[in-house]
């Protein structure tokens, strides 16, 4: 009985336990299903928020809507955080933890996710209800207000658009020579003047303009008899004459006795009608008068009026206002001029139509008369600063554009960069110094674009009055014309211009100016495509001084230098328009000059946008608004993300791209992976001139960039509302705890721990540290941190790294590059399951832990340390001075990381010859691989292992010492490679497996480079960058970059833009052939262990820069530069090296 009871009790306990476990399992499963359902629902809400934000813009006038947008922006960020948490939930069953008492375990992540989603759903509903509630109140209040009458613009009048474009073009072409209406009326001309004022969209502004002129003291003195008549319909001749005479009497009496003028007019008007008409006839025939006709609407009325107002050649003037463009032009007569008097909007301007003598030297297209004087004056007032190399490049392009099918030169760059200024200098220079062109024309593209209006503007400058499109084409064929087309905005505009005006028979040259690189490339080939870049720092200072002296020759600022003023000039980003505007503002100041400098420096963008004296920057600011605030959706977060990097910071391209990917700004699409999309985004920002490239050519991917200082300031001024980036810097007060998504700690911050620990980190996405690291920078509240970037931070230890891995389990990007005190990666690294990027380059890490094989999402591993090998070889050896890259030992199982596309540098010898080769075979997605420790034992196996990797584009191989010939008889898989680096070779290049065509970048370090190897390199069709380090050179220390056949030199190294040479011989003779390296832009010579005798430098027609490494001798640099003084491109010679390569 007792046994049965015991069994029964045990059975009931087991059944109870099973029931409880099943209940817990079901509860866990239900919660997971609930999370999925809620996630779908809240994702829909998120998409609707995103759609609303797409429609919302900065110009919203409703404060209710602006407030709602602010709240849903923050809510959207929180939704994204929640989604990130749910996605990262561990799939492993944890139901057993529910069986334990709550006091023994921490809250489950699943339970926390469910609770957070419920809260978010409630917030979404509350925000929407709040908007509906207050929007209804707003509408109710608004409906009770008196109705406001809005004057709608009149429907467009036929021909109005053409005439407005014509007026604006002519006004820009005159460059301010037209003063005002008073000067136009007061000119000495006895003929009856007829001047039309035409409002393009309405009569708004016309009356005030005429009134100002009508009451002007100069006009009152010159015209005793003045009258202003508002025409009535139908037109009454009797009423018209009586109105004229009444005002003639009134205005003439005012000159004599203003007190009794009114009574005198009434007495005069009481006279008999016949007497009044006779007096009118006599006055019109003998006196000089000014008559304003308001509201003229028909030519019938005009013809009637003119019968009463014949031309007696006494200097009289008629001003008429009308909204009909045809009437405005017909009343003035044929061959009239039109100018934009005042612009009120893009659609509405008040324009003035008048007639000048039919032959005017100012209108002649040949370079003579007044046009030459204006050009000469412009050249005197506008010196060229920092643009010598680009003006030479333009001259070359202009010479080449004379050949058939090469008639177009494209010039592009950001707004305000000085494109038009540079071309105008070239334009006038051609007038003075060459006879290449018979006619000259400068045309500003009208917007909205109108081909007929564009052609008419071109004809006016070429002095022709016939059918515009047909005559333009004939003139461009008949004469050698230089035509500048400024402000081209679309490819469609160019298609219309090209189809209508250009022909193959034409010998004219067209210069197109645009802000977009894609349009510039579309108009012409790459050889005639000139990018106008920002001024360098020295040229910016020179331009500032020149502009100050031009405005005020005695200004102390012209020669005064201090930190604040220099920093203010550098903030201008090398943009001439901004520098000139700041100089113009500061030049007149004396005692208060530095106070203004301090104010400008502290509130730079605020002053530029709100100071009336800086109105000339509005076009630039509008362009900035379009590219910063209204770019494509995928680019906007990438642009605002740039404010993370301090001004002047060198940014490695790959560093930024990997951060974008970790932040989710660049994702995989149907046809491209995330890396390729990030590369595309980066290229677009380069084309927008947001980056300053630390290199010489946009076609060569240099590793370092800087954000333009002016653009960075603009980005920061617009990012405060988003509250995305928070910066800890010297002088930055922290009054309230920050909730920024990205935290940046600058080098000059004082590391105040108390202040730091007051901050909120629960929503932080990234942490970037410049300068000294402190252990308290890591907080356990940083649960959402995705990016931890400590590149070149000082003081980071292994203990700090252990704490990072323990607390920051959501990391996707971890960079410790340059943290030399880091020696080991912790075993717990495998807990970072979301990690995509690991960069430990230039640390003291030599071994990668086994736990890394658990990181299935890892795509990018950079490791290895550059050292100098002075102790490893005799001190007199040349190789004792060369850097040597030490790879890291990787564990067995690295082949499990199938998502890996970048790996390097790994030490193949240290990682086990057979094991690592086996693992490398599995990494079929590799696109970039770096390996050291290659020797005669593993070389063949290594090459065999990677031969089948069809995605491999970049390969870097470092041979062990005393293994220089281990690759001599091995065929390398060069077919798909775009970049190849081979270090430690002997006297023979490894043979390619087949004739490859994709290689763009090649770096070789060899004992000896034979001429047959040079001949082989000369015919690589896509080679763009070539770097050579050679211990010794045969053939008497000579290096010939050319090839011959039957005594004739051949075209070789056709696409090479960058060449670097390093050698250890006492003197190396380098010769460049007449048909070799025709596109070379940068030549780098390492003088550490060698000297060079260079021949044929003049054959390098595109050479822009020469970099001298291994010497700080300024006299030597100056002497080298003097030898290049006669070079057609006048290349710049520098001593300083570029930042280290990535």
TrEMBL record:
Ranges for the Disease resistance protein winged helix domain?
644-707
One of the GO biological process terms: defense response to other organism
* SUPFAM superfamilies, per the entry: L domain-like, P-loop containing nucleoside triphosphate hydrolases
Q: Which residues form the NB-ARC domain?
A: 188-351, 403-552
- Domain Disease resistance R13L4/SHOC-2-like LRR residues, every copy: 766-1119
Q: Which domain of life is it from?
A: Eukaryota
Could you tell me one molecular function GO term of this UniProt entry? ADP binding
Q: Where does the Disease resistance N-terminal domain start and stop, copy by copy?
A: 15-86
Q: Name one Pfam family in it.
A: Rx_N
So where does this one cross the membrane? none
Q: Which UniProt keywords apply?
A: Coiled coil, Leucine-rich repeat, Nucleotide-binding, Plant defense, Repeat
* Similarity remark: Belongs to the disease resistance NB-LRR family.
Q: What is this protein called?
A: Disease resistance protein RPM1
